[in-house]
């Protein structure tokens, strides 16, 4: 097992560090994706269906498809699909995202959707059930993922979604920009030592909030899910603008807030939420551009990203330090992050 871990103490850590490679390999799928897109009829709406981390990739898909393609886009949890299929019609493309291609809820939803619309599965496992049942299939090239908590497969799913949007929108500029993601990701991974120290500072908190708006909302959700899965600490991902409608009542100096604040449209408004939670005593871990002096000033701890990473592509990079933060808190709390209690890599029951 040590050999399989390639010198890393856990599969999860190895898989986090494999992410630049996973993006690179998935980017090489572009010609397959172009080919699939050339077979598409004119779709009028998109619905994403998935569970868990794959659901968060779907949420990024919604913001991206709406921003780039102007197509109405829904996101439905696979376990809710049978109660919410009403809006699907023959002009819809229903996109299923699944690492394993075997999740029971997702397969059930796929069966229902196949009767009503065209279906596309974005899957990491060759030959899995979802790849046999969907009309179109795109493979993420993350390689096998052993850690129960999804990391590199999430990044590969996102890469596929960005490629799909770029191909559907004939957006050359975005395709070029995506080529730079592996290098940016290597830069972000260099933050690990700082994040490990941060983990030691925060690992005894009992509740966390993760906040973001727009493209950063799914990143906040995924950061909170990683925390719950492998540290057993309660973490809630929240749209920053919703804090004032309830959760603000829970904020005090015992509840750290992780704020995802890349440069762009959502920046100023999320920053005002940072000020709100600070006024109630919260320690804030800020994720933002290296030249964001206001955020640096407001945050107790700052995770700095290259300033070229704009909001639209930030989900591919801003989630990486959050994976590392949960990983190190998990290890420091004496937990095996590869095998969290009560969870399975692939859930084959509804
Ligand atoms: C399980 C795993 C999660 C995963 C989810 C969906 O709960 O523990 O990491 O995100 O299933 O799995 P899928 O294979 O459909 O992406």
TrEMBL record:
Ranges where the SIS domain occurs: 36-174, 198-340
One BP annotation, GO: fructose 6-phosphate metabolic process
Keywords linked to the UniProt accession: Aminotransferase, Cytoplasm, Glutamine amidotransferase, Repeat, Transferase
Catalytic activity: D-fructose 6-phosphate + L-glutamine = D-glucosamine 6-phosphate + L-glutamate
Source organism superkingdom: Archaea
GO cellular component terms, semicolon-separated: cytoplasm
Ribonucleoprotein as UniProt keyword: no
Major localization class: cytoplasm
EC numbers: 2.6.1.16
Localization (cell): Cytoplasm
GO MF entries: carbohydrate derivative binding; glutamine-fructose-6-phosphate transaminase (isomerizing) activity
Primary enzyme class: transferase
Active site, UniProt feature: 345
Function: Catalyzes the first step in hexosamine metabolism, converting fructose-6P into glucosamine-6P using glutamine as a nitrogen source.
Subunit structure: Homodimer.
Name this protein carries in UniProt: Glutamine--fructose-6-phosphate aminotransferase [isomerizing]
Lineage: Archaea, Methanobacteriati, Methanobacteriota, Methanomada group, Methanobacteria
Primary gene name: glmS
Shown chain mapped onto the complete sequence: 244 to 593 of 593
